[in-house]
Write a structure and sequence with these properties.
The chain has about 280 residues and is mostly helical. The chain has twelve helices and two strands, in the order H-H-H-H-H-E-E-H-H-H-H-H-H-H. Helix 3 runs antiparallel to helix 11 and helix 4 crosses helix 11.
């Protein structure tokens, strides 16, 4: 035990240094990603493609702007949405294990998107319309699942975090069972679409998907920033937060709706990704 007293722990003195390091890491890994792939592009070629009007190769410009940049932007937005949603959930429920996937939001969004695919499998929609239908179904499913978990965890004596986790597990299992039954009754075309979508992936990312996810990501970021003080006060407990002037029910409903919107849209765009919010 005495030897442990002399161990030095590496820490940052200011949050700005952490943000700067993370930002530089994101920029570096993004540039490295843009150079990798079946068609390798030199680092200087990527810089010329990004910052000059006329690139040295039209093929390089097409690969970077039409394929790799949408994938990079969608992956970054998805990670940001899931990470911020996890942080909001952990503060909202005062539990470091709270996560959109653990309280049924991800499973509900997955079921909602599967229902949207099933109900529109025989209809002809444009790419933009099908994206709206899929996002709408995922949002409705995620919001309903999250509200159901919240109502099950709320009682006359207060809000139980342990009941919330148990209700989230139950809702996740229930929605998964409904999804399995749905897959049994759909035709081969819809089954293939649901299976491929549930596997997730960013290979088919488009600028339209990026713009679609950017809207709920912005809403979630703005709402979280505006209600950051209320979240800090709610960490003290609901009675203390009410005494300090926080409208607990309204804050919870607004934040849950924002999280459901962000997570469900990210699920609709990139498929289900569990535990990202928990680790972020």
């Amino acid at each position: 035990m005495q030897g442990l007293r002399h161990v030095k722990v590496l820490t940052f003195k200011s949050p700005g240094a952490v943000y700067l390091a993370l930002g530089l890491s994101l920029i570096g890994t993004s540039l490295v990603y843009l150079t990798q792939g079946a068609f390798a592009i030199p680092f200087t070629g990527v810089i010329d493609t990004l910052w000059t009007v006329e690139a040295n190769s039209d093929l390089a410009r097409t690969i970077v702007w039409d394929i790799r940049l949408p994938r990079l932007a969608l992956a970054s937005l998805t990670g940001a949405v899931l990470g911020l949603s996890g942080a909001v959930m952990q503060s909202l429920f005062r539990n470091p294990l709270a996560d959109p996937s653990l309280i049924g939001v991800t499973a509900g969004a997955s079921l909602g998107a599967s229902l949207a695919i099933f109900l529109t499998s025989s209809q002809l929609y444009s790419a933009h319309s099908s994206l709206i239908v899929l996002s709408g179904g995922a949002f409705c499913g995620g919001l309903l699942a999250c509200l159901l978990v919240y109502l099950l965890a709320k009682s006359a004596t207060g809000f139980s975090v342990s009941t919330m986790l148990l209700a989230g597990i139950a809702v996740t299992a229930f929605t998964g069972s409904i999804g399995n039954v749905l897959e049994f009754f759909v035709d081969n075309t819809a089954l293939r679409r649901i299976s491929l979508w549930r596997m997730g992936g960013l290979d088919a990312a488009t600028p339209m998907q990026v713009y679609t996810l950017l809207i709920p990501a912005t809403v979630l970021a703005v709402v979280s920033w505006r209600m950051r003080m209320a979240l800090n006060l709610m960490l003290l407990g609901d009675p203390q937060a009410r005494f300090l002037g926080v409208h607990v029910i309204r804050v919870r409903l607004v934040l849950i709706s924002a999280v459901a919107l962000g997570v469900s849209t990210s699920v609709a765009m990139a498929g289900t990704m569990a535990f990202v919010g928990l680790l972020a």
